[in-house]
């Protein structure tokens, strides 16, 4: 591309806190921000893209979130700055400079069949994402190791408080009572089943496909002396037997696959005891056709973060629940809460960057550097959302359904 024409065109179109450093020492400035009344040309950009050779210029010619993210992760370019600023600049570049081919690619991918969600493939995908190391996750999660949307009752809570409030919010919504059995599908490091047993008196089973998660969850349960009350299984949800009074699924059904949602909820219904209550807490797309987020952001996550992960629209989820034998009783949108959660995770990640770099390789560090801030941006801009959906068996006893939501908000 003609570099001078490209840079002039970008300056005429946009003002960005961006500097591009070229392999020959030249610097292209695109920021009109002049802090402290500084003279033109000396503004300090919040984001710097370093282009090591001429061939890497192609990533700037028609940038998408996928192409820019891939170039950064694979080391074809370097990007400096806070993750939130990098994501904001990347979205602006993609929205204004991405060619029609990028938008066409997002539409075209809908026509290709997704990978089958076999037990083996799903276990492999879960291990890729979650079995980095427990130390890696503990470096930026809250002390309870809760890896899902927090609940900010008034917006001022710290992350640890908001995560405990989220767990209590879920357990109150399903009205769990002492002695009841609770199944947590995708139990993570065990925070929800621990809380359900300790504070609500439930007898719990948690299932996960991550060996690292299962090992730490069992350690935490042993330290709490709850081995007789809580069981952690390394097990696929499709292989669980029996029935449970309460079922929770928090941040797990995104791995199921849109085409498999009906079968997933049929299994949930099979596992739910008569009169039981289930809550599904999960991320959804805001695209009614279940398509990916724009400018290749979803493709980046699919390749580097969540292999074979798929997001469904709320309407698709509700339909699949009904087809799976469940009646939807309550729906709550926590999109704003997840934007704040991801922003706090991003801050923790960057504030502990030096330590995190000792826990993983540079490529994975860069993946997560972009991913957490990218999710915060996507939630904040309504590209993806988070819904808690409370269900019971369709055609169940109407008398078992509370008259109001008062029991959820003591």
From TrEMBL:
Keywords: Lipid metabolism, Methyltransferase, S-adenosyl-L-methionine, Transferase. The keyword Transcription regulation does not apply. Coiled coil: none annotated. It comes from the Bacteria. The active site is at residue 375. Pfam families: CMAS, DUF7884. GO terms for biological process: lipid biosynthetic process; methylation. Residues 7-91 form the DUF7884 domain. InterPro entries: CFA/CMAS, CMAS, DUF7884, SAM-dependent_MTases_sf. SUPFAM superfamilies: S-adenosyl-L-methionine-dependent methyltransferases. Belongs to the CFA/CMAS family. This is Class I SAM-dependent methyltransferase. It comes from Telluria aromaticivorans.
